[in-house]
Amino acid sequence: MRELSLNVMDVAQNSVRANASLVKIIVNESDKDDILEITIEDNGCGMTEEQVNQVIDPFFTTRTTRKVGLGVPLFKLSAEQTGGSFDIKSQLNKGTTTKASYKKSHVDMTPLGDINSTVEILIRCNPDIDFVFTRKTDINSFTLDTRELREVLCDVSLDNPDVLEWIKQYLEEQTQIILGGV
Amino acid sequence: MKSLAELQAIRDRAKANLDLRKENPNAARIYVGMATCGIAAGARPVLNAFTEEIAKRGLTDSVTVTQTGCIGICQYEPVVEVEIPGEEKVTYVKMTPEKAVKVVNDHIVNKNVVTEFTIGAFTK
To answer: Model's pTM, two decimal places?
Structure first.
């Protein structure tokens, strides 16, 4: 993967397939501490302890269309190649939390990339699922919570084109602020 | 700054012109393969190109762009399937944002399948 945001899109898709109704994506970044942490947390069907041990194996997948499952292994690799760490915690019928930590200055660090696009696509393609996206830097943080948006929107769907445009611009604005732009 | 008040205005507007698209049985569907293989091969810019082109042409009520998983032909990713009601499903392979624009123009708008981008043309 060329960007970590693509790994996030890929792994968040596992949450969608696990029938989660709420998916939280947290990107916590600190230049001061030279660390970037990505957490993907869902309330989906979860996995057994045995399955948790298997998902990091590229030759394990629950799918039947092919024999390999590279989503989680690639995400794990991206973190570990920077001297970071990777962890999955899961409880059956409760949900799964995946966390990857990166050493930002490492030569093998993959850029985070366009994480906003990832969030927007996830909302666009799964308008019935709630997403909470939090991004934090040394300067500040912001959160986009589709549950809050839904309250305002009543029965207007999140994948309404105008709503998606609002989300996109909101993410852009907030990102600029926490990256110290403007 | 984007505010929730603005979102409220969007809601009121959307309610005023009723939600046509939700119940539109004739909507064309564009499925972009977005499993690990698709994403790694560049499916995201392809999906963005489709949604942008559809929005630009004001087709958001009659065309739905959505993602799908891996359909087992990872070597041809990014794979895109176009389904127009009443017509045969078309599978496009090795897609790019540029090809996406052409598919919207030729296939979605003018109903001419872009044969040279289809899986049939690639596997010959």
So the answer is: 0.89
